[in-house]
Design brief:
The structure is a homotetramer of 131-residue chains. With 131 residues, chain A is of the alpha+beta class. The first copy, chain A, is built from 3 helices and 6 strands; from the N terminus they run ααββαββββ.
Chain lengths: 131, 131, 131, 131
Amino acid sequence: MTELKEFFKNDRYAALSGIELLEVEPGKATTRMSIRDEHLNAGNVVQGGAIFTLADLAFAAAVNAYGNLAFSIETSIRYFQSAKSGILYAEARVLYLHRKLATCEVTVTNQDKELIALFTATAYRKDVVNQ
Amino acid sequence: MTELKEFFKNDRYAALSGIELLEVEPGKATTRMSIRDEHLNAGNVVQGGAIFTLADLAFAAAVNAYGNLAFSIETSIRYFQSAKSGILYAEARVLYLHRKLATCEVTVTNQDKELIALFTATAYRKDVVNQ
Amino acid sequence: MTELKEFFKNDRYAALSGIELLEVEPGKATTRMSIRDEHLNAGNVVQGGAIFTLADLAFAAAVNAYGNLAFSIETSIRYFQSAKSGILYAEARVLYLHRKLATCEVTVTNQDKELIALFTATAYRKDVVNQ
Amino acid sequence: MTELKEFFKNDRYAALSGIELLEVEPGKATTRMSIRDEHLNAGNVVQGGAIFTLADLAFAAAVNAYGNLAFSIETSIRYFQSAKSGILYAEARVLYLHRKLATCEVTVTNQDKELIALFTATAYRKDVVNQ
């Protein structure tokens, strides 16, 4: 999966956001973000968009690791606690895999393993021959 | 609403992402993002997280403009087309306002007014006295 | 569209629920439900599932009216007010139509045109040749 | 929890739909529905609204079992497989409990323990004194 990690290094928005892909295999991926001042919103907690992007990279990695090009159709995210400092992790796990669709759940936790957000998403998978 | 615009300049993740708050009034707001290389994902289209963050700032502005501190509980986003270059706009409109909850719909369009994504979100509103 | 109306008369759960398809054309449909005691939950307001089913039939009709068989992938619903009596209407409108996917928004209102719920859904469309 | 089971027997839409509450405790509940002809849609599979209602009763039971009156704000549901016959079960589990909000995940499975749908929902909890 070294190749996939290399491929996702080309996600420039994740790079801008300081998000790192730690692990990836078909149907699973983990990302990490050390909270910095630039992740905060006007209320001084981590912006929802930064949490979303952290989870989105884990989702993208997990669903693309099967080999087909997959892209996001829809996502819902629910926030449980705000985060101000420390490290956030996102762990993605594919719940159901169709030929054309994949649904993935991503939990975002902090360094104390407290649940920060839940991200659930569906990807559309292109046929391998169409890529 | 100049005050609110100033307040949201302190959203450091929106600033990092090159997102600008154009207009805000109670229940409505518009944001803009000129697509740059740093917004792209590994597939060379704008990362879902960048589109989300653009919409999220419009949502936050629209629901906070009533005067209560409001924070996001949940969001769903649906993507219709990918974007590679040009300018993206997000227009937020509150659909329903309760004392404690507000639901907002945000459309993301490109410079040709084509629909890129639909973002729908609910905020929890703190009582004014609790702030 | 008389044929489609006939087809959806075979939706036995909608029939059980007292839901009627009023109008349907490609990308649009309207359904109606007169609130009866059997729609209420233990808290004596219309059960969320009944509101969902009302909206779901409008969605199914609007996305199937293009001619391809379409089935639901995912839905989000947000509730604004409870309903206890009177008539509920659901109006579906397709927001974006791809070859393989369709996204639809459905508003649920009461007889006074007050917004009761917002239902947003994505359908997967089978190719005509595959039917 | 016999009292709660009795309370939810008064959910008339669940009763109309042939849905039974099997077990409930704070944060957890299970419901069951034996598929009958009246649950089917025009395509002869279980209507999305019936699956939703099955999950919704489990959610309502799980979040109300803490003692506060709780009502649904929003739900997202994702469908994985259609069901035509047999028995469906919904198992609800609260993922996060705030003073005013509760988020719950419900899995819908068939009699072979295959995943049919995933339902995720947020409830607003009234203060005990306000009831």
